[in-house]
């Protein structure tokens, strides 16, 4: 009788421990996603203010890119809210797909600039917005990567890599503004192609990170 009660108590307590760990992980994941999303939205607001003041079309393109990529946090946040490893992994694949699309767009734009050179205006505003975008995305990347490693979340790590890619793209915007100001217009699309190669490498690394989590989620139905 006593043995049964002991086993039940031990099992009961162990079950509660698992539930508590799941809830804590969910809360930590949501918090990391929310903080990084807030940082990215704040970055977009600052860039929007600079765009309103200058009217730079190039800046508008970078603004739309950063604001759109911030939305990749939504499916990942939903997965943590549901406490579903399967949904989390699917969100990770969505992030990887978004990274690949970013590479394709960057490559197409760079090739187009090589074939059809065009003048870039508002260089100071463009460089300033690039600095803001780089700092904001790098900060968001650090939040996501640290949380992803702590929570053993390949999807969150992939999203952190995604934010770091955007930081590189924004830094490339600064470099482009500088080289164009120096009269080296052809260097702008070449920088874009170099960044494309970096994005493709990180896309592959992120895909492998997500794929390796298959064994961990194969038996999970939640």
Fold and architecture overview:
By secondary structure, the chain is an all-alpha fold. The chain has one domain: Cation efflux protein transmembrane domain (Alpha-lytic protease prodomain-like, Up-down Bundle), CATH 1.20.1510.10. Helix content is 88%, strand content 0%. The protein has eight helices and no strands. Helix 2 packs parallel to helix 5, helix 3 packs antiparallel against helix 4 and helix 4 runs parallel beside helix 6. The longest helix is centred in the N-terminal third of the chain and has 53 residues. The chain is elongated. The C terminus is likely disordered.
Sheet with most strands: none
How many domains would you count in the coordinates? 1
Beta-strand level of the residues, as a percent range?
Answer: under 5%
Task: Tally the beta strands.
Answer: 0
Low-confidence stretches: 5-19, 215-222
Mean of residue pLDDT values: 77
CATH top level assignment:
Mainly Alpha
Specify the helix fraction band.
over 70%
Distance between the termini: 35 Å
**Helix and strand element order:** HHHHHHHH
- Tell me the CATH superfamily: Cation efflux protein transmembrane domain
Radius of gyration: 21 Å
CATH topology: Alpha-lytic protease prodomain-like
- Shape, please? elongated
- Helix tally equals 8
CATH architecture: Up-down Bundle
Could you say which structural class the secondary elements and strand pairing correspond to?
Answer: mainly alpha
């Amino acid at each position: 009788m006593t043995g049964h009660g002991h086993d039940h108590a031990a099992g009961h307590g162990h079950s509660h421990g698992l539930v508590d760990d799941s809830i804590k992980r969910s809360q930590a994941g949501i918090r990391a996603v929310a903080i990084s999303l807030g940082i990215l939205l704040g970055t977009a607001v600052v860039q929007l203010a600079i765009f309103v003041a200058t009217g730079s079309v190039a800046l508008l393109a970078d603004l739309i890119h950063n604001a759109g990529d911030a939305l990749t946090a939504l499916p990942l946040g939903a997965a943590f809210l549901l406490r579903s490893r399967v949904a989390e992994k699917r969100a990770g694949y969505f992030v990887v797909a978004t990274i690949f699309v970013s590479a394709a767009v960057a490559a197409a734009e760079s090739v187009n600039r090589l074939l059809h050179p065009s003048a870039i205006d508002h260089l100071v505003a463009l460089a300033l917005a690039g600095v803001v975008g780089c700092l904001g995305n790098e900060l968001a990347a650090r939040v996501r990567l640290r949380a992803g490693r702590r929570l053993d979340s390949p999807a969150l790590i992939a999203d952190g890599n995604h934010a770091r890619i955007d930081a590189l793209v924004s830094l490339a915007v600064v470099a482009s503004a500088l080289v164009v100001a120096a009269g080296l217009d052809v260097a702008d699309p070449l920088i874009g192609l170099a960044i494309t190669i970096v994005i493709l490498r990180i896309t592959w690394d992120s895909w492998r990170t997500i794929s390796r989590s298959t064994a961990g989620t194969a038996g999970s139905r939640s």
